[in-house]
Write a structure and sequence with these properties.
Elements (H helix, E strand, L loop, with lengths): L5 H4 L4 E2 L1 H7 L2 H13 L5 H17 L4 E5 L12 E2 L1 E3 L5 E3 L3 H5 E2 L19 E5 L5 E4 L2 E10 L8 H21 L7 E15 H5 L2 H6 L24 H16 L4 E6 L5 E6 L2 E2 H21 L2 E4 L12 E10 L12 H20 L1 H7 L21 E2 L2 H12 L34 E3 L4 E7 L4 H24 L4 H16 L11 H10 L8 H4 L6 H9 L5 H55 L6 H31 L5 H29 L10 H6 L3
Parallel strand pairs: 2-9, 16-17
Antiparallel strand pairs: 1-8, 2-3, 4-5, 6-7, 7-9, 8-9, 10-12, 10-13, 10-14, 10-15, 11-12, 15-18, 17-18
The structure holds adenosine-5'-diphosphate (ADP) and magnesium ion (MG).
Adenosine-5'-diphosphate (ADP) binds next to strand 10, strand 12 and strand 15.
Amino acid sequence: MKEKSIPEIFGSMVFDDREMRARLSSDVYRSLRRTIDENERLDPEVASAVASAMREWAAERGATHFTHWFQPLTGVTAEKHDSFITPSPDGGVIMEFSGKELIKGEPDASSFPSGGLRATFEARGYTAWDPTSYAFIKDHTLCIPTAFCSYSGDALDKKTPLLRSMQALNRQAKRILKLFGNEAKYVRTNVGPEQEYFLIDEKMYNLRPDLVYTGRTLFGAMPPKGQELDDHYFGVIKPRVTAFMEDLNRELWKLGILAKTEHNEVAPAQHELAPIFSTTNVATDNNQLMMEMMQKVARKHGMVCLLHEKPFAGVNGSGKHNNWSMATDTGANLLSPGETPYENAQFLLFLCAVIQAVDDYQDLLRLSVATAGNDHRLGANEAPPAIISVFLGDELSAVLDAIKTDTPYQGAEKVIMKLGVHSLPRFSRDNTDRNRTSPFAFTGNKFEFRSLGSSNSIACCNMMLNAAVAESLRQYADRLEGAEDFETALHELIKETVKKHERILFNGNGYGEEWVKEATEVRGLSNLKTTADAMPHLLDKKNMDMLIAHKVFTETELHSRCEIMLENYCKSVNIEGHTMVDMVRKNYLPAIEGYIGSLARNVSLLKSVSGRIKCTYEITTAEKLSELSDSILEKTDALEKALLSLKSCEDIIKTSVAVRDEVLPAMEELRKDVDAAEILTKEDCWPFPSYGKLLFSVY
Ligand code: ADP
Ligand code: MG
């Protein structure tokens, strides 16, 4: 049989617009479209018609079950499958799926984290269909993307606040567009997330309890070769990896995911996959699915896909770049410099809104990507620093500078630019000086937020970004709507904004020590190094006020989220700590002891042969290893004590501080000695595969 072409398989497992149009009556289709595009309330009759068309479509593709697919605060997706069968009076079954089942589900949700939001006596939450993200089939199950709430209506997931933040931004952006005479039906944010990951051999993976339990290696001496030759980045892709990528692409295409670019990354065994951008909530769903598929498909190829931010010390970790822009229903990108003076002024205003948002809510952006795993990247010399700043490139910076100081830009026209009257010079997409060290870079017609960890859900940073930009736009709209002379007011507003927020603009090297000094001491930017430092700022008054005013979160939701995120941090590190203790006591110490023993036996054997044999190697190695083994024991006891002390902390903030100040340093200390012992020990006496084997065994 001839293999199907890509256009034939693309979206074949998605109930997308093509299917809706083909399978729904025109009334039902139009009504559903209004719900999708304009947030109109869904008619129950429409829901029934959609459900029945969906079931028929799904059954044709072999689906027997359906599930409400949601994103609880665990960070991964959740699903509970129900079959379509309903008993019929004749003792058989019929296949059914009602509008009610499509719209609302009631999973027993008591085991999902709620941060005290859902009292246990009211364990049931409910899931509600998000018609703006298409349903799809995975493993014979029709998956319906849904939001997940408690019975009191509090969001228990990542999708609900994301959708709310998109609405907030839509509301405020439309006010601004109106002032420019633009009657857009809606404004949406678009995201294209670039996903990094590692692929390692499954057999090696299974031999490492640290990878199995925590997703990263907790021990391991550096191999003789790391990433110093830069020979992996964009290098030729190995056959096994190529086969994996081909398989993965097909699976993603079936799910309507626009998998586009793939290449090797900097570290050995590290790769990247980027889809073409889409509407933020769809991009979020797709990114979750993409991560799931990467892991599944890797197993089929005898490999394991690691999505941890820092699986290996000493080589680059994995991040995710969140390319973000705003566009109207006609597809006009609001972050694209325009053709006419008016469009340019509009572009600059939206640009300012983002600059101001990032400055005013640096802490929210930072904490939106804070996890135990990502703390190993941010601020290390590979990922953007924990300090948030905006890169604009030389040209755009010069334009803003000219506006700020009322001086001509590059002498164009030799007049001082007045926005809304004069054309901006055309600035090209700044590809030459793309600054890789900036956490938040303007790349021509979009901003790229680069601080995300590879396993982060992109929902978190986008809800903060959307909300913060909505707040800048609200302030602008309030001011401009009442202005007597729109153009003068606009010009003044942009000038003022540039002056007020230029401290966040930085085109230099974000990795340098000097930047840390300048950012924190001269500019007063925040430098929140760890999750324990960052997360409590979620509850700062200015942040809560803004998020509540734009109806992205309620007060109780914010408290619960802060708690859950900190809990997550503490639990992750706690598991890592216990895994280390376990590996040391059960494997490393006995292995070192065994090797010392064999050295010692050899010494007596050799000495019995001849008194002249010095046994320098055996004796010095045994001495060094024995010293290390004493120290390892001591440090293991210290780590265990630190872990134990967490139990007596009264609240989650104190626990997180203890994790940061006691547990993590104790883990680092212990690792140093074990890695030092690895270098001295005979390879086949070492209990776990080395970094060299983990990083270089996929061909
Ligand atoms: P890079 O040079 O960083 O690889 P690309 O232009 O290839 O940049 O884009 C990287 C990601 O940004 C892709 O997912 C792409 O679809 C996405 N992207 C491109 N334009 C936009 C936009 N206007 N809004 C959001 N994302 C975009
Ligand atoms: Mg990029």
